[in-house]
Design a protein that fits this description.
2 domains; two-stranded antiparallel sheet
Length: about 190
């Protein structure tokens, strides 16, 4: 009797947000044996095309490698298409921009947003820049929703617009350890 080679079941779930888009790519896991022990390989795949973008022994490493590949290929595609984003003008002429009228009534701030702001001690969680309750800042997910980060209070912090947009779909740990050139750890801590 001939034994058949069985392929282990690969499980995958879609990844949403950032360079991964709206579920086009999936994070897959496949059981394997490494150094004589049971292990799991993580892969970022494109199920429709049947291609593997990245694989690694750690989930964050696989995501980081796939992110790098997608950013590099999108930059190369832009370069080949002849688009020059360096000379991109403003989206709207300054005449069309709305002007804030002093003394105008603003929308009330929700209790949840106020709690997140106060828990973050009125500053950006990442760079320490002082924030105002009515000012421009984002409620930020430390574990992004793209990686199944929930809306629980422990996962939400206040972040300045610059840090939140730079963080994109990375985890808080990935963002802080990436040593971004514009990361400021000398920012003063201001009380509310």
């Amino acid at each position: 009797m001939v034994s058949q080679l069985t392929v282990p079941a690969m499980r995958h779930r879609p990844i949403y947000g950032g360079v991964f888009g709206k579920g086009r790519y999936s994070l897959a896991t496949m059981p394997c044996i490494a150094n004589g022990l049971h292990a799991v390989r993580y892969m970022v795949i494109e199920p429709r095309a049947g291609s593997v973008l990245a694989q690694a022994g750690e989930k964050l490493e696989a995501l980081a490698n796939a992110r790098r590949l997608l950013r590099a290929t999108s930059a190369l595609a832009l370069q080949q298409s002849g688009h020059d984003l360096g000379n991109q003008g403003a989206l709207w002429p300054s005449l069309e921009m709305p002007v804030l009228v002093p003394g105008a009534r603003r929308r009330p701030v929700s209790r949840r947003r106020r709690e997140i702001f106060e828990r973050s001690r009125c500053q950006c969680h990442y760079c320490g820049t002082g924030l105002t309750l009515e000012g421009k800042w984002h409620v930020e997910h430390m574990v992004p929703r793209a990686l199944d980060g929930g809306d629980q209070p422990i996962n939400l912090v206040a972040a300045c617009v610059k840090c939140n947009l730079a963080k994109s779909d990375r985890t808080a740990l990935e963002f802080v350890t990436a040593k971004l050139p514009d990361y400021r750890d000398d920012a003063p801590i201001r009380p509310c």
